[in-house]
Specification:
By secondary structure, the chain is mostly helical. It has 2 domains: 42 residues; 38 residues. The protein has 3 helices and no strands.
Length: 81
Amino acid sequence: MLSESSNIVDDLIGKEDESNMNIDWRYYAFLIAITWFLLFRFRNPLQYYVKFTTYFIVTMVYSASIIPLALLRPNDCRNIK
């Protein structure tokens, strides 16, 4: 009986349950995704920076993976392949 009264008090105070919190973060994630899409679609500098950053990251990952392989097999012609 006491737990029922505390639920009524919580309802009167206006405490939110966790399902409303999930809706809020999905809503904000949706707004961020739409904003990102619109900025990427209509702003050429953003496209340039995203493409350059992607190229830079892919190049760094590739080179960081090749260097240890070359160190494991020094003076081997298969390092070039």
